[in-house]
């Protein structure tokens, strides 16, 4: 039996880690930290910092780092993601079998919250699947979710705005979907995540306001807001400069009809 805790750690500010997350970290016998390459070393560095600062001196938690498999960049996006998740699941199982052969409590530090555009839950579901049973890797798994502050919460807090217009719904989507399908019908507010850059250029820019943020919660946080027609070019220029400077970027934005 493996007790797997998916622990939301927010968007980069150690003060955003909840007391429940701290407790889950200290209860884990094994913490698995993914490395995503040199360009995103800030992400593993933050996780290392959290472990250093939040694990109690009496804790016997072992911290093990691993290299996250790379996703194939082929045109079949969903198929590539499916294969990628299978590869990650295999790594998880191998690590659990190596470091906790008799079972135990495993923790994973999840950026933001495990429920919002994170695939850890979907990967965990694979561990008891047919592919792993046939390979002798079957795991009896109990999953616990420890919620964390999401990038959308950090964005609206930083800009001091509500997520929704009065009595109106909010649609959360990706940059890919916004490019392919345009403005969603019957939506007044659209939150956009996982944008590789400038998906809002696919929209008619008149009549839209944008609140944009990058590296939310970190010391290099950057915010821009205003009518989209006025600030779109500024956002694109700033985003490119930040990515060049840091080697990676994580950003999110809210669009609203006005």
TrEMBL record:
Asked if Nuclease is a keyword of the record, the answer is: no
Q: Which domain of life is it from?
A: Bacteria
> What Gene Ontology biological process does one annotation of this record name?
methylation
Query: What does the UniProt keyword field contain?
Result: Cobalamin biosynthesis, Methyltransferase, S-adenosyl-L-methionine, Transferase
Q: Which InterPro entries match?
A: 4pyrrol_Mease, 4pyrrol_Methylase_sf, 4pyrrole_Mease_sub1, 4pyrrole_Mease_sub2, CobF
Q: What is its EC number?
A: 2.1.1.152
Chain ranges of the Tetrapyrrole methylase domain: 4-229
Pathway involvement of the protein, from the record: Cofactor biosynthesis; adenosylcobalamin biosynthesis
Pfam name, any one: TP_methylase
* GO MF annotations, alphabetized: precorrin-6A synthase (deacetylating) activity
SUPFAM superfamilies from the entry? Tetrapyrrole methylase (SSF53790)
Q: What is this protein called?
A: Precorrin-6A synthase (Deacetylating)
User: Which species is listed as the source?
Assistant: Halomonas alkalicola
């Amino acid at each position: 039996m493996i007790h797997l805790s998916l622990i939301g750690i927010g968007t980069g500010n150690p003060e955003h880690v909840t007391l429940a997350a701290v407790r889950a970290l200290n209860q884990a016998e094994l913490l698995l930290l993914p490395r995503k390459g040199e360009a995103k070393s800030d992400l593993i560095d933050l996780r290392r910092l959290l472990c250093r600062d939040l694990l109690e001196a009496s804790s016997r938690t072992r911290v093990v780092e691993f290299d996250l498999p790379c996703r194939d960049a082929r045109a079949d996006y969903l198929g590539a993601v499916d294969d990628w998740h299978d590869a990650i699941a295999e790594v998880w199982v191998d690590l659990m079998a190596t470091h906790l052969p008799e079972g135990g409590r495993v923790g994973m530090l999840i950026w933001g919250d495990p429920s919002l555009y994170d695939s850890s839950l979907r990967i965990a579901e694979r561990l008891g699947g047919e592919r792993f049973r046939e390979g002798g890797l079957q795991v009896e798994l109990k999953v616990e979710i420890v919620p964390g502050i999401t990038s959308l919460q950090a964005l609206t807090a930083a800009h001091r705005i509500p997520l929704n217009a009065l009595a109106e719904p909010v649609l959360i989507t990706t940059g890919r979907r916004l490019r392919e399908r345009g403005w969603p019908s019957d939506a007044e507010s659209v939150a956009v995540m996982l944008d590789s850059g400038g998906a809002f250029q696919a929209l008619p820019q008149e009549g839209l306001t944008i609140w944009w943020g990058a590296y939310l919660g970190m010391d290099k946080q950057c915010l821009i807001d205003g009518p989209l027609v006025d600030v779109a070019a500024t956002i694109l220029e700033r985003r490119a400069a930040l990515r060049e400077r840091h080697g990676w970027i994580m950003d999110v934005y809210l669009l609203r009809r006005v």
